[in-house]
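Lecture notes, continued. The same structure-token format from the folding unit now serves as the input rather than the output. Read the line below as a description of shape only.
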């Protein structure tokens, strides 16, 4: 799982501003800490879509400082972020991945859509085509 550090800053109107040191495009706000952190995850995923659209690798999270708030991404989002980064690293385009997986482009588009509930088996197949595999552990 990817765990991104969050910076919560009190605003002059009583809300909390949310920022991410690793992802400057991700910003949000909340009336209290709980709402701010909930909105932070949405802001982070929205920023990742910008990176996906611009075909830029998503920066990995920096180490948390003691007591620092954070956002833990869901496993499915983490798998898709790491998949996209690997595709960029290997210079594999979506069309090439579709060819390797023997599927049509809309299926690859959904595979890389953070809002789509992709089956784990399909993600594993994509990793395999890139010479990688997924490892799951419990903490």
């Amino acid at each position: 799982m990817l765990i991104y550090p969050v910076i919560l800053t009190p605003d002059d109107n009583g809300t909390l501003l949310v920022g991410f040191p690793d992802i400057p495009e991700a910003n949000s706000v909340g009336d209290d800490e709980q709402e701010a952190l909930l909105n932070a995850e949405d802001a982070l995923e929205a920023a990742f879509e910008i990176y996906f659209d611009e075909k830029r690798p998503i920066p990995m999270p920096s180490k948390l400082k003691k007591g620092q708030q954070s956002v833990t991404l869901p496993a499915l989002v983490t798998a898709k972020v790491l998949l996209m980064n690997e595709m960029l690293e290997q210079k594999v385009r979506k069309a090439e991945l579709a060819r390797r997986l023997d599927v049509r482009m809309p299926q690859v588009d959904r595979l890389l859509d953070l809002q789509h509930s992709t089956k784990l088996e399909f993600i594993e197949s994509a990793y395999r085509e890139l010479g990688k595999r997924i490892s799951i552990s419990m903490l």
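Point for the exam: The chain has two domains: 3-72, 75-129.
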